[in-house]
Every structure is written in C-alpha cells, then in structure tokens.
Amino acid sequence: MAFTVDEIFETASMTLFQGFDLRTVTLGINIKDCIDSDFEKFRGNVYEKVKINSERLVSKTEEIETKYGIPITNERISITPISHVMETHSSEEKFVEMAKTLDEAVEGGGVDFIGGFGALVQKGTTESEEVLVDSLPEVFSETERVCSFLNVGSQKAGMNLDMINKVGGILKEIAKKTENSVGCAKFVTFVNAPEDNPFMAGAFHGTGEPDFSLNVGISGPGVVKGVVEKNENCDLTELSEVIKRTAFKTARAGKLIGRELAKELEVPFGIVDLSLAPSPVENDSVAKIIESMGVERTGTHGSTLAVALLMDAIKKGGAMACGNVGGLSGTFLPVSEDLGMVEAVEKGALSLDKLESLTSVCSVGLDMVAVPGDTPASKISAIIADELSIGIINNKTESVRIIPAHGKKAGDVLEMGGLLGKAPVMDVNKYSSDKLLSRGGRFPRSYLSLKN
Q1: Structural domain includes residue 433
Q2: Separation between Cα atoms, residue 164 and residue 384, nearest integer Å
Q3: In a domain, 446, yes or no
Q4: How would DSSP label each residue in 322-349?
Q5: Quick one: 238 and 335 in the same domain?
Q6: What strands lie across the sheet with 442-443, from one edge to the other?
Q7: Same domain, 66 and 156
Q8: Distance (Å) of CA 313 to CA 150, 171, 247, 274, 324
Q9: Which of 331, 422, 420, 426 has its CA nearest to residue 371?
C-alpha cells in the first residue's frame, strides 16, 4: 500500500509534536537448543545466543530509527519460558544463576529487559515450577533486567487457585528483598497469556513460535489525545471514527518499521501489538485521553464508557491497518506509568475497585498498582483472583502487576523512577475473603470454552 506525501507529513507531525513512538521492538528467541546436561555449558550456550542477538537487535534498531525518524524507545528480548528448559537443573540456586546469566547477556548487548523467566501453570504445577516460583525473590534481588510471568489460567483449563494463593506471599517477599519493592514491577500474573506479547513484564517466546520472531508494540496516547481535542463537539459515533482513523495510521507505521527491522535481522516478522502504552511524561497519558473525551477526572462515572469506546476504535483501526495483529492489543492503564492515572488516584477519583471495572472493557488488567506493604498475602491473592476471573469468564487476556509497597501505607507515594514512574499507594478493602481463597483448587473451565 503506497504512502502519500500528506500521510508522511502527518506521521512526521505525530512524531515531532505529539510524542508518537514505537514503545518496544521485542525479539523472541527459542533457547531450547541451548539445553545441555552440563549446567555450565547450558549457561554458556544461553549467554552467547542471547548476547549476540541482543547486540544485533540494538544495532539494527538504531539504523532503522535513523532511516525513518520514528523513535523506538525500548529494545527487548523474550525467551522460551524458563520452566520449559530447566527441568533437569531444577534447584533454586540454578534458577538464580540462570537469571544472572540472562541479565549479564542483555546488559552486554545493550537491551533494556529480558522476559520469559516464568511458567505456564494454568492447570497445575510441576516440582520444577514450584522451585522456580520459590526462587523469584532471590532472582529479582540479584538482577536488574530480568522479567517474570506466570500464566495461572486459561479459557480451556480454568484457573489455578493454589498458585494464586502462593503468589500473594511471594510478592511480599519480593517487595522486601528489592529496593523500593521494584521487583514486583517486573513480575506479572496472567490468564490467557499470548505467546507473542512484546511488552514487559509479560513477554515470552511461546512454544508455538519459530526459532526467532520480531514483535512490535506501538504507542501514541498523545496522538489520540490530539485528535480527540480537535473534535470536542462531535457525537460518539463520529469520535469513534476519528480515533479509528488515527489508530490505522499509527498501526501502519508500526507495521512498516517492524517488517523492515525483521528483514534486516533476517528473522520472521511476528505481530504488531495495538496497545496504547503510556509513559510518565507529559502528553503521553491514556487517562488524559479519557478526560479529553469529556470525563472530568478518570475514575468518575462515565470512565468505563469512555475506555470501552476508545478500545473498540483502536482495535478496529489497527486491525484494518495490519493483518498480523497480536500480543495484548488493548489499552494499558498502569497507575504508576501514567501521570493522568497518578493524578486521578491522588484526587480521589480513581479507586482500586473502579480500576478493576475499567479493565473489564480493555485488556491488560490491573497494572502497576501499589497497595500498602502490610496488606496480607491472602488479600493480595484475592485481588489477583478477582481480576483474573474477568479474563476467564469473558475469554480475554487479563493480567495483574501489583506491588505491596514495603514500609508504605495508603496515601504514600512509591518512587520507582524511569519508565516505572511513581505509584500512589491505594487503599484496599478492610474485610477478609480468606475462607474463600483457602478453599484452593481450580476454578473450572468456563462453559464458553465448550465449543468443540
């Protein structure tokens, strides 16, 4: 499809004045061929493969960025879920050593984060996967760039409540062992996790993927906010059309860059993730889009309608622009990484309960939410279970990144810095659901999955 001069000028304007960028290019790498019965050889194989490809990714990304003039904010690596390759080396010490190996490999290659240090445990856990989860507090205290995930549920399998109950306690340990509890920001719990997600902390290279794949995550909250502000008097149908056309343009730019970069790397091009991804800078806020649509402050009544309209239009426009759409392709509402979300919490407009309702009409879920450090582990598990049950019942991806802010209470602010931003610590319901969660077991598969 040809590009007109007007479209090129418009894309340049989006980049120069509205903060449009590619939030991430993520290279997925199969590391199953690195396995060796000798753990030191295994580690060496992983180190070499990850470092060499990290260096190639960074080098080629810089060339493409210069060629097209569109900023590419992050270069990242995702690997085969670590639980798939560590069965014969299953000890906490070896999991920590492998995490340090991955950390060193991407640091040497110049990559921001590496994802995939996790497991698919939606129906149950192996002994090795239990050891992996137990190792996570030490893993995060010993590394800077390693990200971890657990997929604890799916439409076909139901949801593993035993693992969710364990996660609450693990998160509290991670919070204590890492400065500013930042390790919790690098761990995400999923249901229906996609195998081609380019965004951290949940990226991993799925077992259905080729040896390599290049996935792209676009951004552009500032671009969408700009067109919404220019159309303040149109009705909702017309507003949807305006947002849809804008999403088409940003997705097409992402597809162009992704295909070119994959060609340079000589790897298959995977997908474009359509998600709107905010960052803690001015004019890069999804919350501000919602407010530009006519909501005084994100979190008040009408916010769910606005998010639903926004999400529907983004998906329609992006899907029309690019055949290979995947990943999460939703709208991120991370509290700490979006200045508008931070303001909404500080003003009392946005509560944890309202945030949960917003996530029912977008994907991604409860993201970068800080709660008091003395929140019981069982309550953290209950918050996770509540959110993920939305995904099970509605056949959609949901995730939780929740941070029990060690030493902080409701109303305090947790400063994490950089892309992670700052998180106002949100209050939680004082009443208990311990008896329900202690039942454990597995939430049954939804009847909507019975389609065969």
Answers
A1: yes
A2: 7
A3: no
A4: -S-B-S--SB--BSTT-HHHHHHHHTT-
A5: yes
A6: 153-154, 158-160, 442-443
A7: yes
A8: 30, 35, 8, 11, 17
A9: 426
Asked whether residue 136 falls in the same domain as residue 94, the answer is yes
76 torsion bin: left (phi>0), alpha (psi -120 to 50), beta (else): beta
pLDDT at 420: 85
Q: Is residue 211 part of a domain?
A: no
Q: Is the pLDDT of residue 322 over 90?
A: no
Q: Which of 175, 223, 198 is nearest to 13 (CA)?
A: 223
CATH number at 354 reads 3.20.70.20
Phi, then psi, of 407 in degrees rounded to 5: 80, 0
pLDDT of residue 451: 74
Q: What gap in Å lies between CA 251 and CA 103, rounded to an integer?
A: 31
Give the Å distances, CA to CA, from 200 to 75, 134, 204, 232.
11, 21, 9, 34
Contacts of 94 by beta carbon, 8 Å cutoff, 6+ apart: 39, 86
Lowest mean pLDDT among 103-107, 151-155, 442-446: 442-446
DSSP 3-state of 443: strand
Helix or strand (DSSP H, E) at 399: strand 398-405
10 CB burial (10 A radius; 0-12, 13-18, 19+):
middle
- β-pair partners for 369: 402
pTM of the model: 0.92
Q: Is 299 within the bounds of a domain?
A: yes
For 1, counting Cβ atoms within 10 Å of its Cβ (0-12 exposed, 13-18 middle, 19+ buried), the class is exposed
Chain centre to alpha carbon of residue 387 = 15
pLDDT in tens, 89-111: 999 999 999 999 999 999 988 89
Quick one: three-class SS letters along 162-199?
A: HHHHHHHHHHHHHHHHCHHHHHHHHEEEEECCCCCCCC
- On whether both 246 and 370 belong to a single domain, the answer is yes
217-241 average pLDDT score? 89
What pLDDT is stored for residue 17 in this prediction? 44
Residue listed under structure tokens 């014969």: 88
Query: How many residues does the structure list for the chain?
Result: 452
Spatial CA neighbour of 277 closest among 14, 24, 99, 90? 24
Domain that holds residue 358: 219-439
377-394 vs 161-177: helix crossing angle, rounded to 10: 130
What DSSP state is assigned to residue 85?
T
The span from the CA of 356 to the CA of 333, in Å, is 10
